[in-house]
Write a structure and sequence with these properties.
With 410 residues, this protein is an all-alpha fold. Helix content is 84%, strand content 0%. The chain has 17 helices and no strands. It is globular, with a radius of gyration of 21 Å. The relative contact order is 0.13. The model has no long low-confidence stretch (mean pLDDT 85).
């Protein structure tokens, strides 16, 4: 078995890289393209992200869990991979067809026709990325090395080809191209482990879990991605630029803790399948300790130094992102708690229905609050919606984890 310490080490390197590269490119891009163009880019990407969610459904989560369970049996590993890859092929085909229809029928999207076609490319290659295979195998060394290589090429390309506000299409193409290049490398590397076969037999083994977790992802997007899309429809590109700039900074910070949860999830899935509950409890306690140690200082810094952080990262003209950043700052802690409860507990335990129920409550709050306050308060309203939705999900997750632990006598 791969050392957990080594995986956390490689994930730490990857996290550091994921910090450094955006901190290199985003200050440059935000100043060159301007807040309105940043808003357009993120609006289009939020639409594409919806179709990415439908294409992937719950493949990413189920894939990591099931590959982790079967990684020591070559025959079961191949069967699991083929079944999940086949399901993903079907869902992606449907998603591409729907995206093409929407592109040609919604006027707001026709305004950004060229960017939408770049999004189609991103959608197709995201399906071929099969990142869930490597995370299930706990091959974090490969994931880290590949990501750093592609990121270096991306940073270099941005500075060479993005020179002024007219290069918005070039910027979005380069961003999408990272998915394309990663997918091609993954496909070549995967042949060492599995064969690519379409297998229509026994798809029901995973289709239920994939569907349930897919609905969960769609519902979760109702208070994350939907915020950006809805804000784009009812407000201006500038307001989208303010909101997405604040969320970009927040995501960079949260990425560090997400790296730990990503490493621990396949290991916990394996531990729970063997009913090693004591070791499971030890890992959860370790996650909570790391989260508190990490998140509380981050929240304090974001609250007190929001103006300086916005100016440093985005530059002049992004002052409208200061208040949204302060509002969403506590999400570093709130979402961290959610990841421990859901990614490290409910998912490995196979409690897909509980996860779905969580997202139903979060989506209800998200949609209701979006319709109520975003048209009036715009970027600030979107920030408030996100926080309230995540708090709802966290409280629901606490209830289900306590209930499940009681059932298992943990």
């Amino acid at each position: 078995m791969v050392s957990l310490k080594k995986n956390i080490f490689y994930s730490g390197i990857l996290t550091t890289a994921n910090y450094i590269f955006p901190l290199i490119t985003y200050p440059y891009v935000s100043r060159v393209l301007g807040v309105a163009n940043i808003g357009v880019c993120n609006f289009v990407d939020s639409i594409i992200h919806y179709f990415l969610i439908f294409s992937a459904l719950g493949i990413g989560t189920v894939g990591i869990r099931e590959i982790a369970k079967n990684k020591n049996n070559k025959e079961k590993l191949q069967k699991t991979f083929s079944q999940l890859f086949t399901i993903n092929t079907i869902t992606t085909t449907i998603a591409v067809i729907l995206l093409l229809i929407v592109m040609h029928t919604v006027p707001k999207l026709q305004e950004n026709y060229e960017l939408m076609w770049i999004g189609v490319l991103k959608l197709v290659f995201n399906y071929l990325l099969i990142e869930w295979l490597y995370k299930g195998l706990e091959d974090f060394k490969y994931v880290t090395n590949r990501t750093i290589l592609v990121r270096c090429l991306y940073v270099l390309s941005v500075f060479i080809f993005v020179k002024n506000a007219d290069d918005l299409g070039t910027y979005y193409f380069l961003t999408s191209a990272t998915v394309v290049v990663n997918a091609i490398i993954n496909l070549l590397y995967a042949r060492r482990v599995v064969q690519f076969k379409i297998c229509f037999s026994s798809l029901k083994d995973y289709s239920k879990s994939v569907g349930i977790l897919g609905v969960y992802n769609v519902l979760t997007s109702m208070y994350t991605t939907f915020n950006v899309a809805y804000l784009g429809f009812v407000s201006s590109d500038t307001q989208v630029g303010y909101y997405t700039t604040s969320t970009k900074i927040h995501s960079l910070i949260l990425m560090a803790f997400t790296a730990v949860t990503g490493v621990l999830m396949p290991r916990i899935a394996s531990i729970l399948s063997e009913k090693r509950y004591t070791e499971y409890s030890r890992l959860i306690k370790k996650s909570i300790y790391i989260l508190l140690l990490f998140s509380i200082p981050c929240v304090i810094v974001l609250e007190f130094f929001a103006p300086e952080i916005i100016y440093l990262i985005a530059g002049a003209g992004y002052e409208g992102a200061i208040t949204p950043l302060r509002i969403i700052a506590p999400l570093v802690l709130i979402i961290g708690v959610e990841q421990i409860l859901i990614t490290q507990s409910l998912v490995p335990m196979g409690k897909d229905r509980a996860i779905l129920t969580n997202s139903l409550f979060g989506a209800f709050v998200g949609v209701l609050m979006n319709l109520t306050i975003v048209p009036r308060y715009r970027a600030v309203g979107s920030s408030i919606v996100w926080v309230l939705s995540e708090i709802t999900v966290m409280l629901c997750a606490i209830y289900f984890v306590r209930k499940t632990r009681k059932e298992l006598n943990i």
